[in-house]
Amino acid sequence: MDITWFDSNSWLLGLGGQQILVDPWLQGELVFGSQAWLFKGEHPQPRPLPERVDLILLSQGLPDHAHPPTLKALDRSIPVVGSPSAAKVAQQLGYTEVIALSHGETFTFRERVTIKAVVGAPIGPTTVENGYVLRDRQTGNSLFYEPHGFHAPELKAEAPVDVLITPVLDLALPLVGPIIRGQRGALELVEWLRPQVLLPTADAAEVRYSGPLVALLKVLGSPEAFQTTLKAQGYSTRVVSPQVGQLLSLDLQAGSPPTR
Question: What is the CATH number of the domain that holds 154?
């Protein structure tokens, strides 16, 4: 399994011979509701679009996951799989092949990769976005992705899963509470899914954030601290922090979930 991290929650997954681009924010500013004065994210320089993208996978309809400037820059003929809210964004931007997955639904891409939508992050009072379990139909290698650290106990039925892409940091706002529940959420996932490798997401490497909202955000935890916690509790899962833009090839052991 080959994986490239493009900072924040943007990933390119090489799975089943397919190149799957996840939650891409590669070009343009990140703002919410045109309120750049309140919060703005920027890349030091625009990241080049991947040379090959077979499928776009979107977990949420918010701009930090379904990023309109990046989606506008990509080829609109690329198939898109997303949560219902993310699918709506892709359709509005003119993508011609869009599949909306609700929780529990599965989509098989080119007979190579299955993508199952599972419960993800609550957004507002009525919307619960998606996490995904992806499986290579030939090798059996599997991956779970959810960017906010929210998941439901039903996910236990998917065990074991080889690779987790999940946050290990907590991010909270006063009066709002946790936006990202990485520390507790990641530990639950390791307990439930027994992954060989965990790749932290939602962190910032090169991107820069500005605006008064940034000063209110409270961040707790680190990949190093989480690896120490896993080791202390007897888990052999490896926490791997990729370098931005560099291909990471994971050598996974078939049929050998980590022990505790």
Answer: 3.60.15.10
The β-bridge partners of 56 are 21, 80
Residue 37 in any domain: the answer is yes
Q: Could you read off the pLDDT tens digit of each residue along the chain, which spans 260 residues? A: 999 999 999 999 999 999 999 999 999 998 887 777 788 889 888 889 999 999 999 999 999 999 999 999 999 999 999 999 999 999 999 999 999 999 999 999 999 999 999 999 999 889 999 999 999 999 999 999 999 999 999 999 999 999 999 999 988 877 667 788 888 899 999 999 999 999 999 888 888 888 887 777 788 889 999 999 999 999 999 999 999 999 999 999 875 455 55
Asked whether residue 254 is domain-assigned, the answer is: no
In whole angstroms, what is the distance from residue 40 CA to residue 34 CA? 10
Across the chain, the runs of DSSP E, i.e. the strands, are: 2-5, 11-15, 18-22, 40-42, 55-58, 80-82, 98-100, 106-109, 113-123, 127-136, 142-145, 163-166, 170-173, 177-181, 197-200, 208-210, 218-220, 238-239, 247-249
Question: Is residue 183 included in any domain, yes or no?
Answer: yes
Overall domain count for the chain = 1
Residue with tokens 């098989």: 108
What is the distance between the alpha carbons of residues 43 and 67, in angstroms, rounded to a whole number? 13
The tokens for 61 are: 């309809």
Structural domain of 94: 2-243
Q: Residue 73: in which H helix or E strand, if any?
A: helix 68-73
Q: Is residue 176 part of a domain?
A: yes
What is d(CA 23, CA 170) in angstroms, rounded to the nearest whole number?
Answer: 20
φ, ψ of residue 200 in degrees (nearest 5): -70, 140
Tokens representing residue 93 in the block? 């931007």
| pTM for the structure as a whole | 0.94
